[in-house]
Amino acid sequence: MADFHQGGHVATLHNLRVNQPDALVRELEAFTSTRKITLILPSLFSELEGEALPDIIDELNKVDFIHRIVIGLDRATEEQYRYALKFFSKLKADHVVLWNDGPRLSQVDARLTELKLSPSEPGKGRNVWFCMGYTIAQADSAVVAVHDCDVLTYSADMLARLVYPVTNPRFPYQMSKGFYPRVADGKLNGRVSRLLVAPILSAMAKVLGPREYLDFISDFRYPLAGEFAMRTSILPDMRIPSDWGLEIGLLSEAWRNLSPRSVCQVEVSDRYDHKHQDLSEEDATAGLSRMSVDICKALYRKLAADGTVFSEEIFRSIKATYFRDALDLIETYFNDAQMNGLHVDRHVEEKTVELFASNIMRAGQVFLDNPMETPFIPNWSRVHAADPDITTSMIQAVAEDMKEYSEAV
After folding, report:
1. 40-to-146, 188, 230 alpha-carbon distances in Å
2. Is the distance from CB of 53 to CB of 42 less than 8 angstroms?
3. What number is the average pLDDT over the span 87-100?
4. CA distances (Å), 257 to each of 154, 212, 218, 263, in order?
5. What EC numbers are recorded for this enzyme (predicted)?
6. Angle between helices 198-208 and 312-339 (to 10 degrees)
7. What is the phi/psi pair of residue 269, to 5°?
8. How far apart are CA 223 and CA 127, in angstroms?
9. What per-residue confidence (pLDDT) applies to 275?
């Protein structure tokens, strides 16, 4: 991906392979003497038993520019939380583990529920939101970064490149988004980004007419990347979805809150692979099927908030236009893969497009049937206004959990 192409809205920071990674790290270490960085790791307990996370910890132990690591732990029993404390004790950096299902943080969540401010459903978005709240409450970091815990090709260089644009005080960027090629085991991956996001953005522009928001999202080479970093000052006003529309939701918030010139995408890796979700053709509440519905809803919500009026007829037109555009892209991806010695199963790709086309309509129907749905978790500015002591209670709950349950580890 070593080129210098720039799109229309978002600055693209490439890896031109002329700078040594150590040079970037030395600069970061100098910057972080006054601009501390917090890393958020949203994790399911099951990921502690996978092959990716131990290697991620080894790579994180190579860096000295991280001030704190905030781990959000979901779906964990008390025994599993104790295990997690021992598991993450290998981290060299200062770190905390938020036991999201534990009794103390559940009490914090109950206070939020009483105020009608609690995230409506479990998921990565909810996990990241609580970790962001904890980071805001600590008030000692200038930058926060987030990446997933299932990255099989993780390296410390990836993190350095991700945080550099928002840590360098001479750069104007408030948010950086990672991008990379999705290639592994001789196959072209990234099905949701390739076969849903790119063609539906194109289809929406054709059906709805030009929209700067659609151009903005289209500028990102990998809009569904789970790797992003932000200056902490923008966190309190960020509204994010609690479902699998998190990445699109964050980009939508960047479009709403920031100048496009203060957002960049940065090439963080030559090769990226992580845990692959099942397509889940028979169950729209799981796998890539659910993900595709949530992503479509996130796009519909944002456009509706900007004044777009949707109807069943419009959704049918978007679906039909999407289907034609997606089929054309399959041909392009197949040719690209052939030139690079990679495999693409065109039959499976077309079946995937058929499922996504169906889910474009499914998401549209959900959108039309729930006009009063509140799609975003309230931002932390509102939470603090409603209960100024909630973040103090969160810090205390996490500290007490860490103390009580690590004593027996």
Report:
1. 5, 28, 11
2. no
3. 98
4. 30, 14, 18, 11
5. 2.4.1.266
6. 140
7. -160, 150
8. 20
9. 66
